[in-house]
Design brief:
This protein is α+β, with helices and mostly antiparallel strands and 114 residues long. Helices cover 37% and strands 18% of the residues. It contains three helices and four strands. The protein has a four-stranded antiparallel β-sheet, covered by helices on one side. Helix 2 packs antiparallel against helix 3.
Length: 114
Amino acid sequence: MTEDQILSEEQIQEFLNIFPKWELREGWLRRKFSTPGWSHTLMLVNTIGYLAEAGWHHPDLNVGYAAVTVKLQTHRVKAITTKDTELAQKIEETAIWLPTEQSSLDGFPKNWIH
């Protein structure tokens, strides 16, 4: 296991360039995910919870009817670290995944999480 590293402003900006729906605000990495409704919101919260627990790094979540806002900061150092960007990337990849056109899976027929 490697130790988490506090990221410089340049390193955070590199992350934001790759994942433009995330933002840095008030010392936190943030991303608001919109969902089709309450049941999808709960599924997303549970998915984020599972990923956070598996990584042993826990975000703050704001949960509404059709939205989840994820806030990441390494509480111990009150800064953005590699733990935050790695978990954000995993959340992003998992939350917005949909089957490809070549997949046997149909995919949700309505607007999905975005």
